[in-house]
Amino acid sequence: MELTSTGLHGVPWPELLPDLRPALIVPATPDRLPHPGDGWTPHMPEAPDPAWSAHLDSHRLTIHRPGNHTWYDGPITASREWHRATRTHHTLLLITGPFTGPHDLNTAATTGHLLLLTVPIRLA
Prior knowledge:
It is a single chain. By secondary structure, this protein is of the alpha/beta class. 15% of the residues lie in helices and 34% in strands. The chain is built from two helices and seven strands. Strands 1-2-6-7-3-4-5 form a seven-stranded mixed β-sheet.
């Protein structure tokens, strides 16, 4: 993955997967918990979940969970390559779990505690 932001203080950071698909690494916070039944899985999702949506307007990203409830709304620090990848793939892989920043992400990943969800994304 290409590190493009620090992920400190619970702020999500964009990454590019080795195959150049865009991902957003989302540290756990009380207001962004993955709800059971919302489509989260410990395995790579096959297709985007149509109950979710994401909208990227320059460097502001808004993500809605089922029922049009806002799951994330805020700035992200994304590279030009990441923006290009969202335009190419029209999907965004969300990665979350019991980590609060980049320093404990590896522990959550190696212990199998990450949750994944692919959402459709549209760009302004």
